[in-house]
Amino acid sequence: MNNTDWMLDEVVNVPHVRNAILLTADGLLQAHSAGISRDQADAYAAALSGLQSLSRATAEFCTDDPHTSWRQTLVEFAGGYVLTIAAGEGAYLAVSCTDAADLETVTYRMHKLVDRLGKEMTSPPRHGAGRT
């Protein structure tokens, strides 16, 4: 188990929250809660990084301010939600929950977790990968 996996389980303790994952902007899984397998979490991390890229690219749809930055993505499905927030430079925290979840409580706990983990949840861009 990763050092941050158990901390993600704390978010999952919020009523009606199912799973939580920590991912990098380029889709690499950093940590996952106990209720989801590594293979599932890897697949969701890759998909959610693409969703974040699309979300950031559509900021101008909401405002003419070129300095508008992405804050959160909420996707609603029949029966539940996926919420994703920034978790440091190049990192995101994503949580899935049922439609019975109190979204305000869920996002509050997500932000508290990000604050608590601070630099541990930061994944800076990779430069010069493979160079010696």
Automatic annotation (TrEMBL):
Q: Which residues form the Roadblock/LAMTOR2 domain?
A: 5-97
Q: Which Pfam families is this protein grouped with?
A: Robl_LC7 (PF03259)
Among InterPro entries, the record links this protein to:
Mycobact_SerProt_Inhib_Rv3364c, Roadblock/LAMTOR2_dom
Q: What is this protein called?
A: Putative regulator of Ras-like GTPase activity (Roadblock/LC7/MglB family)
Q: Which organism is it from?
A: Streptosporangium becharense
Taxonomy of origin reads:
Bacteria, Bacillati, Actinomycetota, Actinomycetes, Streptosporangiales
